[in-house]
Design goal:
Elements (H helix, E strand, L loop, with lengths): L1 H15 L11 E7 L3 E8 L5 E5 L7 E7 L4 E4 L12 E5 L4 E7 L4 H4 L5 E10 L2 E4 L3 E4 L2
Antiparallel strand pairs: 1-2, 2-7, 3-6, 4-5, 4-8, 8-9, 8-10
Length: 143
């Protein structure tokens, strides 16, 4: 009897509980290309409207990049452009269906993650406000 009363009392509460909204991700995709010298971060706008990313110093401030070596060594970048003097705020604008490519020299980090030429992986996250878009892993080898 108690179980029946508990079920009768709790069922309306469970039905009435609001369903949490899933926040929509931006229609942006991040792809990686490159070699052991230069990494290309491609930001593709798959949406119907222009994608805008306001920044204080450089668009790189919204990007976190991780390099992981085969033997557990890693390097993380996530504070690009903080020391640039005379930098001005701006906005990276990518039209609907367009692509923007940002390049970064990783050659100085390769010896830290791949001292003997082992393969290493690169992974990038792009922050778009309170949302994050992640790239797939890119495997590179220092040859």
């Amino acid at each position: 009897m108690r179980v029946l009363l508990a079920v009768l009392f709790l069922c309306p509460l469970a039905i009435a509980a609001p369903v949490p909204k899933e926040t929509a991700k931006p229609n942006v995709e991040v792809k990686l290309e490159g070699d052991t010298f230069i990494l290309k971060v491609k930001i593709l706008n798959n949406g119907q409207e222009a994608f805008e990313l306001p920044y204080k110093v450089t668009p790189w401030e919204h990007i976190r990049m991780d390099l992981h070596g085969a033997k557990g060594k890693h390097v993380k970048y996530h504070t690009f452009g903080e020391d640039i003097k005379n930098a001005k705020p701006g906005k990276l604008t990518i039209p609907a269906g367009g692509t923007e490519v940002l390049t970064f020299h990783i050659c100085h980090s390769v010896p830290d993650v791949s001292p003997n030429g082992e393969p290493f992986t690169v992974f990038v996250k792009l922050r778009c406000g309170d949302k994050t878009v992640e790239s797939k892993l890119l495997v590179l080898r220092d040859e």
